[in-house]
TrEMBL record:
Any Pfam family the entry gives: T2SSE
Domain Bacterial type II secretion system protein E: from-to ranges: 408-422
Stored PROSITE patterns: T2SP_E
GO MF terms held by the record: ATP binding; ATP hydrolysis activity
Family of the protein in this entry: Belongs to the GSP E family.
Signal peptide region: none
Protein name: PilT/PilU family type 4a pilus ATPase
Amino acid sequence: MVRGANGYEPVDPGALSTDELVKALQAMVGMARASSVSETPVQWTVNATGLGSLNIAAVRRGELMNVRLTRSAEGAAAAAAPATAAAPAAPAAPTRTPYAGMPAVSAQAAPTRTPYAGVPAVSAPVDARATQPGGMGAGAAARGVPVSAAPHAGAPSHAGAGGYASAPAHAGAAAHAGAAAHAGAAAHAGAASHSTASANPPARIIPISRATSAPGRDLTVLLEQARSMGASDLHLVAGRPPLLRLAGELLPQDTPLSPETVERLLLPIIPERLRHVLEKDGSVDFALDSEETGRFRVNVCRQRTGLKGTFRVIPREIPTLESLGLPADIAKATHHHQGLIVLTGPSGHGKTSTLAALVDIINRETTHHVLTVEDPVEYVHPRKRALISQREVGTSTRTFASALKGSLREDPDVIVVGELRDTETVRMALAASETGHLLISTMNTPSAAKTIDRLIDLFPPADQQQVRLSLSSGLRLIVSQRLMPSTDGKSLVAAAEVLTGSVALGNLIRDNKTYQIPSLQQRGKSLGIIRFEDSLADLARSGKATLETVKGFAENPDEIEAMVTGKRPGAAPTVPPPATAQEGARMLSKVGSLLGKKGA
């Protein structure tokens, strides 16, 4: 791209490849300096035959090279005059410069052009960028490098892609080329550019039509809207519009709700038995079920602006492991007659759905008695082959621990506990798993190894060795999962770490060597073990999620990139062979022709 009287304009989409840019740099600044360009921007000032005095700024991101050439007024006049046979002057020592938003510092005394917003334009820079498959910016966008945007009026920008301003600068100021384009925003040719990155665009507002304003009907409309749009949660907050969580993102709807409106919507649905709990504790949890809207898990609490309600949408159909995108081998753990299965991950990442899928497998394939203890009951399991008894904390039992204590006298084969929250519940769960029952539960822990440590650390030091012995012999499976946006941004996909019980794992737990579990996972594929990094890489390779998305969930993003792209982390970019004299002359001629276009 060049900047002339009308701002930045593309002149040749296929102008220079990365190798050609490197060879052009070699011709202007020498082989050593051209090959040393890295992620730290560098600048030189040179006198090139036929081009005059040039300020050159270069930066490299992986295999992508960005070069900015600025010709001073004196250089432009010299270039217009007949070229002499003098050899190019030796380049000055490179001067490190912040590449965006700060004045460039030249190594020579002569004034240099500062090609950034907010500074009067002195000369015309050229942005030379390596071409990539799919257009000039495809490769850069994948690496998060700003890319010059073609000035198509009203062309929408893409999520995550960097966009250079293609608009004329204000009052002669150069348009800054580093502002990031955001999903849902459109970059219009001729729009004003600013020297600082623009603020995030406002969240997309989803209009909602009210069927009626009668009390109770507004909430029904909102709940129906949340379910029909595929939202996972609905938030009602005093002073804010209703918010839907779609593919992990909270999106506002309609207009802000007054505190009185929120109270009118929430207070009537709180069960009478829980109203004193709301007054005492400031928060209550319960299930809301109706034939019209379906089933929801509800939390109502008090906060600064008034009441707040959170509605978790519970699907009408019980999910399967396949529909959740989880490995089918997880179901093998349900064939055990005793032991412990733990599902882990942050809140809101699908643990309850996975738990329901496992219970449904037992319900379809066995004649066991399955007893569940939940707070509240979320998925209601229909009658199939198994006998399902579902108990709710606060309604049919006082606490998880008391329900577990009584459950041992109810002849259960499988006990399902909604969450292992405290030491007493964990103690009763371990006891149940050792007395001929299969116990399935969830915890809010970040990984399989940390789940084991958490189970042990809940107990005082005097009891921890006994807990290790119980886990070493009774642990059957740990699944740690995360939900992340899909490639199209319209849904969520799951990545799962799977740690199966084995003799090797039991030995590590018993000997207090859980820090060696990652090493076991590296070599335990034959045992059915799946590392979280392998699951993330599979999502990226299959196109279900983008590489940048999965890297955001990885402990070691470089490892994920290497697994997906096949490139060794930290590997140096490929350097082309030195340019010959003829190639150097051709590259300089091409750069000169670019500088001569569009009145640059």
